TrEMBL record:
Keyword line: Ligase
Region named Disordered: 286-307
Entries under PANTHER family matching the protein: BIFUNCTIONAL NON-HOMOLOGOUS END JOINING PROTEIN LIGD (PTHR42705)
Protein known as: Non-homologous end-joining DNA ligase
Matches recorded under Pfam families: LigD_Prim-Pol (PF21686)
Gene responsible for this protein: ligD
Domain DNA ligase D polymerase: 28-281
EC number: 6.5.1.1
Length: 307
C-alpha cells in the first residue's frame, strides 16, 4: 500500500520507501526523502525557488537507468508550479519550479538530482549569478581543482566579484558568483575570458577547451553552464553516484587546505552537522546586496591559447 502523507496541506503519495537506492551505504528511498525534508529543506529551497528545474532521475538507484526530465513528468500535481522556458527548442515548453516543501517532497519522491539555470523564472536569460565548473581529468582530482579555484577567486576579486565554492558532488568543484542581473550571453563571454586567462596563467594545470585529448592531468574550467539553456547541479542536491554524495558548500579554508580528494567528499549524513556549524555557506548568493556588476569591457589579459 502506498503511504499517503500531508505536507503543508498537500496530500502526497510516497512510494517504495524501503527500496535501497545506494547499495554501497544501504541508503533507502525513505532516507533520501528524510534528507530533503528534515535535513536540507531550509537550505536547498531558497536556491531552487523561482528557478525552472531539470531533473536527473534515477528511480532504481545510480546503478539503474538514469534519464533527464525537463518537461513536467506525467502525473505532476496541478498545484506544482511550472514556468515557460523560452530557450527551449519547443516554444511551448514548461518546467517545474520547486518553490515550497510540498513540491520538494513530490520531486524527491521521483528520486532526482536537482539542476537549475543561472536565471530566475521571472527573467529568463538574465543571469543573477555566474558559475564556473571545475572538472578534473584523471589523474587530476579535486585537489588540482582547489588550486585553480584559488587562482580564480583572486582573479574575480580583482574585478570586484566574490566567489563561493561547493563540491559538484562528483569529482570537481563549482564556483558561484552573485551578479547584478546581466544577460546570460554577457556572463558567458566573461566566464570564457576567465577560463582562457586561467589556462594562460596556469598552463600545466588549467584548460579552457573541452577536447578530451587535452584533459588528462588538467582541470577543465567549464564556462558553458552560463548559457541560458544550460543548468548546474543545485546546492545540497544528492547526486546519482555510488554513495549518496552531496553538492556541498565549502569554506575557502577547506578549499585552501585540501590535500586529498576524500577530504572534500560529503554525504547525506554529513550535512546536518555542517549546516549546524556553518549555516548556508552560499547564503550570500541569495542576498541582493552582495550582487555586483560585471566589469566593463576591457582588453583581455591574455591571448587565447591556440586550439
Amino acid at each position: 500500500m502506498t503511504p499517503i502523507t500531508e505536507v503543508e496541506g498537500r496530500r502526497l503519495s510516497l512510494s517504495n520507501l524501503d527500496k535501497v537506492l545506494y547499495p554501497a551505504t544501504g541508503t533507502t528511498k525513505g532516507e533520501v526523502l528524510h534528507y530533503y525534508a528534515a535535513t536540507v529543506a531550509g537550505a536547498i529551497l531558497p536556491h531552487l525557488r523561482d528557478r525552472p528545474v531539470s531533473f536527473l532521475r534515477y528511480p532504481d538507484g545510480p546503478r539503474g537507468q538514469l534519464f533527464v526530465t525537463k518537461n513536467p513528468p506525467p502525473g505532476t500535481p496541478d498545484w506544482v508550479r511550472t514556468a515557460p522556458v523560452p530557450h527551449s527548442e519547443d516554444p511551448a515548453a514548461r518546467q517545474v519550479v520547486v518553490d515550497d516543501l510540498a513540491a520538494l517532497m513530490w520531486a524527491a519522491n521521483l528520486v532526482v538530482e536537482f539542476h537549475t539555470p543561472q536565471w530566475r523564472a521571472g527573467a529568463p536569460g538574465t543571469a543573477d549569478r555566474m558559475v564556473l565548473d571545475l572538472d578534473p581529468g584523471d589523474p587530476a582530482t579535486v585537489v588540482e581543482c582547489c588550486a585553480v579555484a584559488r587562482w580564480l577567486r583572486e582573479r574575480l576579486a580583482s574585478d570586484g566579484l566574490s566567489a563561493y565554492g561547493k563540491t559538484s558532488g562528483s569529482k570537481g568543484l563549482h564556483l558561484l558568483v552573485p551578479l547584478e542581473p546581466t544577460p546570460s550571453a554577457e556572463v558567458s563571454a566573461y566566464a570564457k575570458r576567465l577560463a582562457v586567462e586561467a589556462e594562460s596563467a596556469l598552463p600545466d594545470l588549467a584548460l579552457h577547451r573541452m577536447r578530451r585529448a587535452l584533459r588528462p592531468g588538467k582541470v577543465f574550467v567549464d564556462f558553458s553552464q552560463n548559457s541560458a539553456s544550460k543548468t548546474t547541479a543545485a546546492p545540497y542536491t544528492l547526486r546519482a553516484r555510488t554513495e549518496p554524495t552531496v553538492s556541498a558548500p565549502l569554506t575557502w579554508e577547506e578549499i585552501a587546505e585540501c590535500r586529498a580528494p576524500e577530504e572534500l567528499v560529503f554525504r547525506a549524513d554529513d550535512m546536518a552537522g555542517r549546516l549546524e556549524r556553518y549555516g548556508d555557506l552560499l547564503g550570500p548568493l541569495l542576498d541582493p546586496a552582495r550582487a555586483r556588476p560585471l566589469p566593463a569591457d576591457r582588453p583581455d589579459r591574455s591571448r587565447p591559447p591556440a586550439d
